[in-house]
Specification:
The complex is a heterodimer of chains A (about 110) and B (about 110).
Chain A: E1 9-13, E2 18-23, E3 31-38, E4 45-50, E5 55-56, E6 61-64, E7 70-75, E8 84-92, E9 108-113
Parallel strand pairs in A: 1-9
Antiparallel strand pairs in A: 2-7, 3-4, 3-8, 5-6, 6-7, 8-9
Chain B: E1 5-7, E2 10-13, E3 19-24, E4 29-38, E5 42-50, E6 53-57, E7 64-68, E8 74-78, E9 87-95, E10 100-102, E11 106-110
Parallel strand pairs in B: 2-11
Antiparallel strand pairs in B: 1-3, 3-8, 4-5, 4-9, 5-6, 7-8, 9-10, 9-11
Classes of the chains: A mainly beta (about 110), B mainly beta (about 110).
Chain lengths: ~110, ~110
């Protein structure tokens, strides 16, 4: 898996949009971008993933640049419960259902302030 | 949303003992991976199973082993436990549409 670079921490005001950046300049053509978050010592929670098009689900939006070297996770209306460590990772496309190894960096600690 | 279950949720063992952890992915998760998470090392890949076969393996000693059953359920074993094996052990299931979900984890404490 390619490496990713994220800021170690970010703050966001409650109710505002949280924009979390991620650089993945060595991503290859068949690698997806995945975002997870982890609250306290619970298991990481899947948020969203994408290949090259922007994606949106009930939790967040994922904006991937045209050259795919960076992406931004957007939480449109952050709440206090969104305070967590957010991980951006890249992994190979699902070939025959195989997972391949995920390499997690240190992630971004997002703190949502009241 | 996920529904991946892991048992037990908490476990306390002593050095030298062995432990078996279980993961039941949800329907459609054909691939199951295991990860170890510690404060110092973060999330580290243990191994991945697909169709009852180990497809990928991380850099852990042979004391760590696993298997997958025909219903996709997976177990991992750690023998001759060491203090450093204390960690949160996470199971990850993957669907064919590339959605991936972690289980809640098993917190193992080795005394």
């Amino acid at each position: 898996d390619a490496k990713t670079t994220q800021p170690p921490s970010m703050d966001c005001a409650e109710g505002r949009a949280a924009n979390l950046p991620c650089n993945h300049s060595t991503i290859s053509g068949n690698e997806y971008v995945y975002w997870y978050r982890q609250i306290h010592s619970q298991g990481p929670q899947y948020i969203i993933h994408g290949l090259k098009n922007n994606e949106t689900n009930e939790m967040a939006s994922l904006i991937i640049t045209e050259d795919r070297k960076s992406s931004t996770l957007i939480l449109p209306h952050a709440t206090l419960r969104d305070t967590a460590v957010y991980y951006c990772i890249v992994r190979s496309s699902n070939s025959g259902g195989s997972n391949y190894k995920l390499t997690f960096g240190k992630g971004t600690l997002l703190t949502v302030n009241p | 949303k996920a529904g991946v279950t892991q048992t037990p949720r908490y476990l306390i063992k002593t050095r030298g003992q062995q432990v078996t952890l279980s993961c039941s992915p949800i329907s459609g998760h054909r691939s199951v991976s295991w990860y170890q998470q510690t404060p110092g090392q973060g999330l580290q890949f243990l191994f991945e199973y697909f169709s009852e076969t180990q497809r990928n393996k991380g850099n852990f000693p042979g004391r760590f082993s696993g298997r997958q059953f025909s219903n996709s359920r997976s177990e991992m074993n750690v023998s001759t436990l060491e203090l450093g094996d204390s960690a949160l052990y996470l199971c990850l299931g993957t669907r064919d549409n590339n959605e991936q979900f972690f289980g809640p984890g098993t917190r193992l404490t080795v005394l």
